[in-house]
Specification:
Blueprint lengths: L2 H12 L4 H14 L5 H8 L16 H12 L3 H11 L2 H9 L5 H4 L5 H13 L5 H15 L2 H11 L9 H17 L2 E3 L4 E3 L6 H17 L2 H17 L15 E2 L3 H8 L3 E6 L3 E8 L2 E6 L10 H10 L5 E9 L10 H9 L4 H7 L2 E11 L2 E2 L5 H11 L7 E3 L2 E4 L2 H13 L4 E6 L13 E4 L6 E10 L8 E9 L5 E7 L14 H8 L3 E5 L2 E4 L4 E5 L2 E4 L7 E4 L2 E5 L11 H10 L3
Parallel strand pairs: 3-13, 8-10
Antiparallel strand pairs: 1-2, 4-11, 4-12, 5-6, 5-7, 7-8, 8-9, 12-13, 14-15, 14-18, 14-19, 15-16, 17-18, 19-22, 20-21
Helix pairs in contact: 1-2, 2-11, 3-13, 4-6, 4-9, 5-6, 6-10, 8-9, 11-12, 11-13, 12-13
Bound molecules: adenosine monophosphate.
Adenosine monophosphate (AMP) binds next to strand 4.
Length: 587
């Protein structure tokens, strides 16, 4: 398959803001993509060469790409740099300059999608002497054969800046349209920008959509779903079961104002649980092998050898997938530790054993998604909880079931809440007893109640060089949330909560400057634009409506709480959450 076929779709999608029209282009692309290319196409469509949870990362700096453009076009590096300063977008620079390059292009071959993908993946595996030159060569090789517009998309993909505005929902819909339009007798009317459904009755359409969504939830892989849909149809999709060792997206929770509000949302009676302040951990077992995954679905089995051991010893069953919160504690004093302290274990590559001895984690299990080969997502929560209670032989400071109280009394729940706060927990959760488990969504089958305002996880997209005693540091950080298609939307500027001196503890200007400097993509006077990568937790007094920012919201008195190294760009707060919080504060 030629790379140009994909670029055509990037261009089509960029040409419209209409969601249905975008879906149409995507569905045509999927239909025309040979099955062996589906995985590649589905990743590249979203500007990726690795799944989000894959440990391999591209990590190519803009300077290196600049050099590759220089090698590919023979154009002076200084001129490329000037163009870059002018446009602020190396993709556009590559496109403009590729048009000017010498005859070489006329003789080079059409770019194949596989070659693009392979070269980009190789970038992450190179190590040792001569790495930089080899990377430049891999990129230059692609740029040499690329047509101008292809060069633009290659550069953006390499720099991880291709945000085509294609959300997971659009891909799901595109899969449905691509493989089931005939069965559903649907078609897209471009004139009216409307999906035409027989008798305007969406029942069957929604049924099919749910089945596609379920398949995506269970496999966590669009390509697998597309392949099964095209070869085995609806029945094939319905037969999919959850398989341990394939991480599942975690269910998320909404925020309730207080206990009364919680009851209104999840019903009476409800299950209340401690909300532990640790990190989400998915524990999988199959064929006597335990694997652990974070909320971002990164595998962390090696980092937590003690959890592997407890699970083997104290959880019965041939296969299962548990959802839990892991909380670290100090081995000597037995005291629980704040998340920041334990978070270093997640990324740790060396000295794992020593750290595990010093700072082990306790696993608090609160849900189960699969047991002995049976998918449990559609079982009621109370039934899932009963399974956990049956299969876990509880061992404090190793593995336990989340502390739970089932009640319909506001008073009893209030007492439980007080108890949780007194023992140092963040708050409590309230869960609907008969709800299913919905991977990846904030559906409200459970809500959290905590005394503090809900923080937002925002990505830094810009900053300003400081003055006076802060000169040499980046200050005043522009932060953003995202919409459902992954578009990055500014929501304010954070200047407080950051420390000048290391002794003060917490995040320093120096530390943030170090992290952000390599990510700078544009500079204008004192203002810099950075690649969205660094995620911070932000507290604020209030959310306000504001035309000043793309999100239409602004934060009053925002302050940085901590770096969220456990979160990726996909995990930053979305507009829906911001809106929820905005209306919540008005109640
Ligand atoms: P938040 O991150 O503030 O949206 O709160 C939800 C998070 O709380 C979940 O993603 C879990 O990591 C964590 N958590 C702690 N205890 C529980 C519990 N008993 N049930 C569900 N989630 C919990």
């Amino acid at each position: 398959m030629q790379y140009s076929a994909l670029v055509k779709v990037y261009e089509e999608i960029a040409s419209t803001t209409k969601r249905l029209e975008k879906t149409k282009y995507l569905s045509v692309l999927l239909k025309n993509t040979p099955s062996q290319n589906l995985s590649t196409v589905l990743l590249l469509l979203r500007g990726r060469v690795f799944a989000t949870w894959d440990k391999r990362k591209l990590g190519v700096a803009a300077r290196l790409v600049l050099k590759a453009i220089n090698v590919a076009t023979g154009i002076d590096a200084k001129k490329i740099e000037d163009e870059w300063k002018k446009t602020g977008d190396l993709g556009i620079v590559a496109e403009n300059l590729a048009g000017k390059k010498t005859q070489a292009t006329l003789f080079s071959q059409e770019l194949d999608i596989k070659q693009v993908f392979d070269n980009l993946q190789k970038l992450s595996t190179l190590e040792g002497a001569g790495t930089v030159d080899r990377k430049i060569k891999l990129i230059a090789q692609l740029l040499t054969s690329a047509k101008p517009v292809e060069a633009r998309y290659i550069v953006r993909t390499v720099l991880e800046e291709l945000r085509a505005g294609i959300g997971e929902g659009s891909i799901r819909d595109a899969i449905l349209w691509a493989y089931f339009s005939k069965e559903l007798k649907i078609h897209y009317d471009k004139e009216k920008n409307e999906l035409v459904i027989p008798d305007k009755d969406r029942t069957k359409y929604n049924e099919y959509l749910d089945i596609v969504q379920r398949a995506i939830d269970l496999t966590n892989d669009f390509a697998t779903v597309a392949k099964i849909a095209s070869t085995k149809g609806l029945e094939g999709l319905q037969k999919i079961e959850l398989k341990p060792q394939i991480p599942v997206k975690v269910m998320l929770y909404q925020k309730a104002k207080d206990i009364k509000d919680a009851f209104e949302r999840v019903g009476k009676p409800a299950a209340f649980e401690y909300k532990y302040d640790g990190f989400r951990l998915q524990v999988h077992k199959v064929d006597n092998k335990i694997s652990l995954y974070t909320r971002r679905l990164e595998e962390v089995t090696k980092q937590f050898p003690e959890v592997v051991e407890y699970t083997k010893k104290h959880v019965s069953g041939d296969s299962f997938v548990l959802d839990a919160e892991a909380v670290g504690f100090d081995k000597k004093s037995g005291k629980y530790l704040p998340f920041q302290k334990v978070s270093q274990r997640i990324k740790r590559k060396y000295g794992i054993k020593e750290l595990a001895d010093k700072m082990p984690v306790e696993v608090n299990v609160f849900d189960i998604l699969q047991y002995n080969g049976k998918t449990l997502l559609d079982e009621q929560f109370k039934k899932r909880r009963a399974i956990i209670a049956k299969i876990i032989d509880e061992q404090p400071k190793q593995i336990i079931c989340a502390k739970q109280l089932i009640t319909d009394s506001v008073k009893a729940a209030q007492e439980f809440y007080g108890q949780a706060l007194k023992s140092g927990e963040e708050g409590i959760m309230a869960k609907n007893l008969s709800s299913p488990y919905k991977p990846g969504s904030r559906v409200g089958y459970g809500v959290k109640i905590k005394p503090t305002m809900d923080e937002l996880d925002l990505v830094i997209v810009g900053a300003e060089w400081g003055e006076g005693k802060r000169s040499g540091w980046l200050t005043s950080f522009a932060v953003a949330c995202q919409d459902e298609d992954g578009n990055i939307l500014n929501i304010g500027k954070v200047g407080t909560g950051i420390k000048e001196l290391e002794q003060e503890g917490g995040v320093t200007f120096e530390q943030l400057t170090e992290l952000l400097k390599p990510l700078i993509i544009k500079e204008k006077g004192k203002t810099v634009t950075v690649k969205p990568k660094i995620i911070i937790e932000v507290r604020y007094e209030e959310i306000q409506k504001s035309p000043a920012y793309k999100s239409s919201y602004a934060l009053r008195f925002p302050r940085l709480v901590r770096l969220r190294e456990d979160r990726g760009l996909d995990d930053i707060s979305n507009l829906e959450t911001v809106e929820d919080l905005y209306y919540g504060q008005k109640k």
